[in-house]
Amino acid sequence: MPQGPAPNPQSDAEQLDAAADQAIAACGGDAREAVKALLIANEFLEAQISQGYVRGVKHDRFNTYSG
């Protein structure tokens, strides 16, 4: 089975650095505020996922065969 190109760790690291720089810039250059904002965003996303499981939301890759 053909696989896509192997992940490039250098490229991944550069992308993470760029994302971190953007988060810090969005918080006026304050790294501590950027961390707080990212923690809040993460908590929000975790709550959304948890609510989906409680409601029984199914996504294509988690559907089971029922036929």
Shape category: flat
Care to count the β-strands? 0
The main sheet comes to:
none
Class by helix and strand content?
A: mainly alpha
Helical percentage: 55-70%
Mean pLDDT: 82
Order of helices and strands: HH
Radius of gyration: 18 Å
What is the subunit organization of this protein?
single chain
What distinguishing features does this structure have?
mainly alpha; 67 residues; 2 helices; flat
Describe this structure in words.
By secondary structure, the protein is mainly α. It is built from two helices and no strands. The protein has helices spanning 9-26, 31-55. Helix 1 (9-26) packs across helix 2. It is flat and about 40 Å long. 0% of the residues are buried. The model has no long low-confidence stretch (mean pLDDT 82).
What is the fold's blueprint, element by element?
Blueprint (H helix, E strand, L loop, with lengths): L8 H18 L4 H25 L12
Q: Short description, anyone?
A:
By secondary structure, the chain is mostly helical. The protein contains two helices and no strands. Helix content is 64%, strand content 0%.
